[in-house]
Amino acid sequence: xxxxxxxxxxxxxxxxxxxxxxxxxxxxxxxxxxxxxxxxxxxxxxxxxxxxxxxxxxxxxxxxxxxxxxxxxxxxxxxxxxxxxxxxxxxxxxxxxxxxxxxxxxxxxxxxxxxxxxxxxxxxxxxxxxxxxxxxxxxxxxxxxxxxxxxxxxxxxxxxxxxxxxxxxxxxxxxxxxxxxxxxxxxxxxxxxxxxxxxxxxxxxxxxxxxxxxxxxxxxxxxxxxxxxxxxxxxxxxxxxxxxxxxxxxxxxxxxxxxxxxxxxxxxxxxxxxxxxxxxxxxxxxxxxxxxxxxxxxxxxxxxxxxxxxxxxxxxxxxxxxxxxxxxxxxxxxxxxxxxxxxxxxxxxxxxxxxxxxxxxxxxxxxxxxxxxxxxxxxxxxxxxxxxxxxxxxxxxxxxxxxxxxxxxxxxxxxxxxxxxxxxxxxxxxxxxxxxxxxxxxxxxxxxxxxxxxxxxxxxxxxxxxxxxxxxxxxxxxxxxxxxxxxxxxxxxxxxxxxxxxxxxxxxxxxxxxxxxxxxxxxxxxxxxxxxxxxxxxxxxxxxxxxxxxxxxxxxx
Length: 557
Hints:
The protein has 557 residues and is an alpha/beta fold.
């Protein structure tokens, strides 16, 4: 990917030395901390070693009331109905609350809507299902904050609703408006920075933690999967939760995760974000995309070996089908774009495509074109779509400015869903392109570096210290250094589209590899600037420092 500009944060050198000596870390690592806004020593300690004791669920409004309602309902024998969502965030949320309520002796059922037949959120259909089961309380997870009609209907039918959600609430004249529920738990109402970006599973976990703190901690592995899947910023409370749950995923303490890792071919006990994003999470998400996801909840909490074996085979089959469906749609889209794409500032496409995979297709378009992508599945008179955008571009601005054309919409800054009349698609495309010209006019594709360094500053110790920042993800990207005027030595192509080389600067020589960079216009002996992450490469028991290249260009003085 080409960047319009490479930018690095400049830091007072005396303060950099102070941080380095105080924490006994290298100067490049100290610069990473400072470039990410971590300047206070206590704040840095909290980031590097976040404590689960810092989490207090009762700081979130609605939690205290919900706990009292639930405890009283359990004592009176009231039945609970958990209304979840069909993606990994919603499924892990449902599994946590269903399991902990069961262990507390509650009579509890769960319901995962069918993506195509019932759609997202708490619906009239969901309420009718709860009524059939004799439930007196519905608990929503990862949904509900804008489901006014369904909550009103539930109340009319004598069923109370507790909402746990993390999506944006409705705001009228800068005032938050929520459904008439027994309790509403959504950190975005409180706007407290520490909890504001919790995923749906994080909010559900807050309620579980308030119900039984010690018991809830065993679900941190599910919290990790759901949070990582939803691509929320891995900072503040999210970082704390994932930092403590990551080890549970690695150790396979939960039977279902052990089986999930096995069917995904994950044999290492040391996991990177790649393993979650491309191996584990797709298998959890797949049923909700092209089938019905209800049995995923059963899989996540099961301890029965035969049940886990049967469900894991099903997950693998569905995931293979999902992958083939995406490939077919991407092939159609690439052909369509080759004929119709005129370098518009936003990509808007529609077709007779499976609605469950348009979101992942939009993500792939982001990777390729680095601009907002809206992909719609045609369904009779309506079109149902998903949108994704690059970091720094807020989809909510697009949707709020187009709401007169939409039947329904919701989501986050970088991911959203919407429904509209099929006849409005051309008007929407025109509107989105106009909005994009305004929003993206000042948007520059900037590569932000954590530090500018010389090769002699990059050591194995620096590479090891980078592990302190894991896990990496949204809002906590892998550290990135920049070095200027390096000489390319022994350049060669490896694999399908990769390059390996040595880079030399002032007598220092380091190995480097660039994945998917074989098309880069560089030559043996040329001077280049590189952006990279230092790593330790191990081969046949020998460890060496290696730079993983993220970007390169001809040297610029």
